[in-house]
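Re: that backbone. Tokens:
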């Protein structure tokens, strides 16, 4: 039998331990301990891109692996490496998104040919990375700063003047949150900034599948099209100018 005093003392002990665990969790100290260094993280990204282009991974496998890797990013280290503070000094456009490059040549161990393209998008509040899809491209976003409303659609069919699309993701994204696209899943993305000075990190791998003959670049479209059965939407193709006029 333990005395009331012993019981209280043990209870207090667990409360202190629990409090400490909770404190460490809030401070993200556990998570930080298992995150790779930012150099190692980029090295993994080059290896994944190589495996996608070398057809060791399907686009869907790449997408899953990219999301796993993106979830393990040290966001603070990523923002520091891409010099987000300097990017923020540039003016943001009144329509659409700014597109800013960054340098990875100082990252230890990276090959000269990264195998992926990279950029940061920045938007004023209420402005958008306008709705578009891609052909023969896998790409992924990580929110660096600000809050965004992100929407994705599967590109189910491609016709002469329209696509048939299906909504897949429709939610708010906070810093550290991510989304990816491939030709076969969540192919169309559209991100609208809900806060001032909102930034997104982007990596893309182009031309991974020689059997896909569609033209590269952005496929602009209007997701606000005719509703079809089964939750599908007939989304007319658009020019970049028209898409920016309506959604920028
Ligand atoms: Fe895109």
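Recovered sequence:
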């Amino acid at each position: 039998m333990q005395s009331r005093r012993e019981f209280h003392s043990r209870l207090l002990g667990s409360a202190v331990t629990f409090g400490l665990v909770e404190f460490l969790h809030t401070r993200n100290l556990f998570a930080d301990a298992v995150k790779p260094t930012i150099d190692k993280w980029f090295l993994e990204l080059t290896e994944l891109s190589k495996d996608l282009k070398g057809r060791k991974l399907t686009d869907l496998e790449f997408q899953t692996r990219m999301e796993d890797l993106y979830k393990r990013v040290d966001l603070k280290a990523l923002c520091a490496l891409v010099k987000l503070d300097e990017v923020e000094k540039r003016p943001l456009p009144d329509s659409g998104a700014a597109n800013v490059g960054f340098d990875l040549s100082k990252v230890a161990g990276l090959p000269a040919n990264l195998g992926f393209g990279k950029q940061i998008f920045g938007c004023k509040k209420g402005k958008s990375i306008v709705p578009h899809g891609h052909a023969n491209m896998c790409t992924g976003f990580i929110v660096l700063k600000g809050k965004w409303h992100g929407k994705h659609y599967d590109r189910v069919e491609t016709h002469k003047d329209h696509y048939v699309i299906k909504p897949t993701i429709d939610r708010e994204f906070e810093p550290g949150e991510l989304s990816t696209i491939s030709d076969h899943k969540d192919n169309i993305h559209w991100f609208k900034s809900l806060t001032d000075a909102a930034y997104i990190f982007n990596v893309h791998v182009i031309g991974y599948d020689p059997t896909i003959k569609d033209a590269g670049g952005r496929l602009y479209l209007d997701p606000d099209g005719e509703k079809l059965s089964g939750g599908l939407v007939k989304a007319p193709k658009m020019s970049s100018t028209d898409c920016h006029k309506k959604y920028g």
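The longest helix spans residues 4-26. The chain has a mean pLDDT of 91.
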